[in-house]
Amino acid sequence: MELVDLALLRVLFLDNNKLSGNIPVGNGILYSNLERVDLAANNLTGSIPSQLGNCLKLRDLNLSHNKLTGGLPFEIDNLHSLENHDLCRNLLVGEIPPQIGDMLRLEALNLSHNELRGRIPPSFDGLLSLTYVDLSYNQLEGPIPNTKAFREAPVEAFANNKNLCGNATGLKICPSTSRSKVDGKKHNLVLILSIITPFLSALCVLLVILILFSLRRGRVRHTGTEGSVENRSGQEEDNLFAIWSYDGTMLYENIIESTEEFNVKYCVGEGATGNVYKAELPNGQVVAVKKLHSSQDSEAATDLRCFTAEIHALAQVRHQNIVKLYGYCFHTRHSFLVYELLECRSLRAILSNNERAVEFGWIERVNVVKGVANALSYMHHDCSPPLVHRDVSSKNILLDLEYEAHVLDFGTAFEA
C-alpha cells in the first residue's frame, strides 16, 4: 500500500479490506494534518512507523486486527491530542512505553491480544481522562494504576496476563497491601463490636475512639526548616507548582481563570484552614481546589509547615477511602491543593439533617465505620513512615452516593 502527496489529508478510513505490506509513511511530513486513521482488519505487517509521531493533530488511531510486529514506538509521546488508541489483536512485543502516560486527553486505550510484557508504567496514573482500558491477553505483571478507569474496569480487561494485581474487581491484592487488609479486618471487628448500641450512642463511641487514638501519638518534634524551593539554575523560586502529568504554570492559570480568581460563587465548602472551590479545567475535568487562608507575615512559616505537611502525607497515599490529591501550588498570591472532586456529603451534614439521618441506616453506618477504619489502618501500617491524621471528625469524612467513606484534609497529619 502506498500513499503520496496527501499533505492535506485529515481522515483516512481503509478498514476491513485486504491491504497488505507496511503502513505507508512517505517522508513523515505528508500526513501531518491527519486527525483520524482507521486501518483495522487488514493484513498489514511490519512495525508501527515512528513517523506517526509527526501527526500532531491525530485524535483517533485504530490499527487493530492486523499482523503488526515489533514494539510500540516511543515517538508517540508527541500525540498529545490522541483520544482513542486501539492496537489490539496484533503481534506487538516489548514493554508499554511510559510516554503513553503523557497523552492527557486519552479516553480509550486497547492493547489487548498482543505479546506485551513487563509492568504498566507508573506514568499511567496521569491518564485522568481515561474511561476505557483493555490490556487482556498479554504478558503483563505487577500493580495496575490506581485511577478510576482501572479501578472500575471489568475483570476481562486484565484477563490472561502474567501476574497483574491491584484495586480492581477480580484482581488479587498486591503483596504490599495485603497486610493492610489483614490489619483492617482486625480493626473492623473491634469497631463494629463497639457500636452495637443505639444510633446516636454508636456515633459518639466512634468519635471518642478516633480522638483518643490520635491523642496517644502525642506531640512530634519537628527538625529543620522549610525554605524556598530552588529552580534548576539554583536561584530562589517564589512560585512552586507540582502536579502530576500537567504543566504547572498552565494549570495554575486555568484554575485562576475557571474560578474567576476564587470568586465566592464557586465556593462549595469552608474550613478552618481554607475554603474549597469547584473548578472545571479546559479538558472538561472537574476538580476540587482547597485554597489556604491568607495570614500575616509572622504566621507565614506556620502556614508553610502546615501546607507542606499535607503535601508530604498525601503524596504517599493511594487508597480508595482517602480523597486523592492531584497536585499543589505555593504562590505569593494564592496557595492551594488540587483534589479529585467527589459528589459527596460530609458525615456531619447527613447527621445534622433529620431526613437524611433517617435514611442513613444501620448497614450504611457500619459501612462508613469500615471505610474509615481501612483508611486509618492504611495510614498507620502501610505508609512509611506511618501517618497520623490528628483531625478525624465527622466534617472530614465524606460519603459518596453509595455511602462509601472518603477521609479528607491531611493538613494536620504528621509522621509517627
Automatic annotation (TrEMBL):
<keyword id="KW-0732">Signal</keyword>
<keyword id="KW-1133">Transmembrane helix</keyword>
<keyword id="KW-0325">Glycoprotein</keyword>
<keyword id="KW-0677">Repeat</keyword>
<dbReference type="Pfam" id="PF00560">
    <property type="entry name" value="LRR_1"/>
</dbReference>
<keyword id="KW-0675">Receptor</keyword>
<dbReference type="InterPro" id="IPR008266">
    <property type="entry name" value="Tyr_kinase_AS"/>
</dbReference>
<keyword id="KW-0472">Membrane</keyword>
<keyword id="KW-0723">Serine/threonine-protein kinase</keyword>
<comment type="similarity">
    <text>Belongs to the RLP family.</text>
</comment>
<dbReference type="GO" id="GO:0005524">
    <property type="term" value="F:ATP binding"/>
</dbReference>
<dbReference type="Pfam" id="PF13855">
    <property type="entry name" value="LRR_8"/>
</dbReference>
<feature type="binding site">
    <location>
        <position position="291"/>
    </location>
    <ligand>
        <name>ATP</name>
    </ligand>
</feature>
<keyword id="KW-0433">Leucine-rich repeat</keyword>
<dbReference type="InterPro" id="IPR000719">
    <property type="entry name" value="Prot_kinase_dom"/>
</dbReference>
<keyword id="KW-0547">Nucleotide-binding</keyword>
<dbReference type="Pfam" id="PF00069">
    <property type="entry name" value="Pkinase"/>
</dbReference>
<feature type="domain" description="Protein kinase">
    <location>
        <begin position="262"/>
        <end position="416"/>
    </location>
</feature>
<dbReference type="GO" id="GO:0016020">
    <property type="term" value="C:membrane"/>
</dbReference>
<keyword id="KW-0812">Transmembrane</keyword>
<keyword id="KW-0418">Kinase</keyword>
<dbReference type="InterPro" id="IPR011009">
    <property type="entry name" value="Kinase-like_dom_sf"/>
</dbReference>
<protein>
    <recommendedName>
        <fullName>non-specific serine/threonine protein kinase</fullName>
        <ecNumber>2.7.11.1</ecNumber>
    </recommendedName>
</protein>
<dbReference type="InterPro" id="IPR001611">
    <property type="entry name" value="Leu-rich_rpt"/>
</dbReference>
<keyword id="KW-0067">ATP-binding</keyword>
<keyword id="KW-0808">Transferase</keyword>
<dbReference type="GO" id="GO:0004674">
    <property type="term" value="F:protein serine/threonine kinase activity"/>
</dbReference>
<feature type="transmembrane region" description="Helical">
    <location>
        <begin position="189"/>
        <end position="213"/>
    </location>
</feature>
<dbReference type="InterPro" id="IPR032675">
    <property type="entry name" value="LRR_dom_sf"/>
</dbReference>
<dbReference type="InterPro" id="IPR051420">
    <property type="entry name" value="Ser_Thr_Kinases_DiverseReg"/>
</dbReference>
<dbReference type="InterPro" id="IPR017441">
    <property type="entry name" value="Protein_kinase_ATP_BS"/>
</dbReference>
<keyword id="KW-0597">Phosphoprotein</keyword>
